[in-house]
Amino acid sequence: MLRFALAATLALAVTPSFALSLSSSDVADGQTFDAKFICAKQSGANISPTLSWSDLPTGTQSVAFTMYDSDANVWHWLAVDIPPTTTSLAQGAPLPTASSRPAR
Questions:
Q1: Which residue from 10, 27, 52, 93 puts its CA 20 to 30 A from 81's CA?
Q2: Which domain holds residue 41?
Q3: Cα(12)–Cα(60) distance, rounded to whole angstroms?
């Protein structure tokens, strides 16, 4: 039985403490969920789950989310450089293309 931990990571300038609220109708922390959310390399469908969040600290510059499978010691997906004004990602959010990425 696979169990997964959902982790949120914030890319912050400087924040001493905060209380981020993260939820998903597709994934519950520590629970088994549909294999479609696992990366294709691990026999999944490579679909991202629905995620919603709130209470970002003042000064947040971007948001990043990862999904780590502690049973298999594998990172299944990673979403990075999400603008702090974004508060959710829909299930199956499209993968970015080279033209949709911000210039650095």
A1: 27
A2: 5-89
A3: 5
pLDDT tens string 56-97 = 888 888 888 887 777 778 777 778 888 889 999 999 887 665
81 assigned to some structural domain: yes
Q: Tell me the pTM.
A: 0.67
- Percentage of the chain with pLDDT > 70? 72
DSSP 2: -
Q: Is residue 29 part of a domain?
A: yes
> Which residues have CB under 8 Å from 23's CB, separation 6+?
51, 52, 53
> What is the count of structural domains for the chain?
1
